[in-house]
Design goal:
Keywords: Coiled coil. 85% of the residues lie in helices and 0% in strands. It has 2 helices and no strands. The longest helix is centred in the middle third of the chain and has 53 residues. The radius of gyration is 23 Å and the shape is elongated. The chain starts with a helix and ends in a 6-residue tail after the last helix.
């Protein structure tokens, strides 16, 4: 391999490392935003459940099934390695 080919490969390697760093930063930002959204969603669900309890209303079956379904779906995705947790 000639010096110019090596220099080209090194430059490409550096460019790819920079791109990887940028993508890692973007992913970290997106994950932080997702955690924040999940926290807000859980807080809203808790507020809604509290309001239901205050009014003497029960959480509806479809709502309970929805919650359980999301939990089961997440567990299944973690099992097959498509989701970390």
């Amino acid at each position: 391999m000639s010096e110019s080919e090596l220099a080209t490969l090194r430059a490409e390697n550096e460019r790819l490392r920079g791109e990887l760093s940028r993508l890692e930063r973007e992913r970290a930002t997106e994950r932080a935003q997702l955690r924040s959204s999940q926290g807000r969603t859980l807080a809203l669900q808790a507020d809604l459940d509290e309001a239901h309890a205050h009014l003497g209303a029960r959480v509806t079956l479809p709502r309970r099934v929805l919650r359980k379904g999301r939990s089961l779906a997440g567990r299944a995705l973690r099992r097959v390695g498509l989701r970390r947790g």
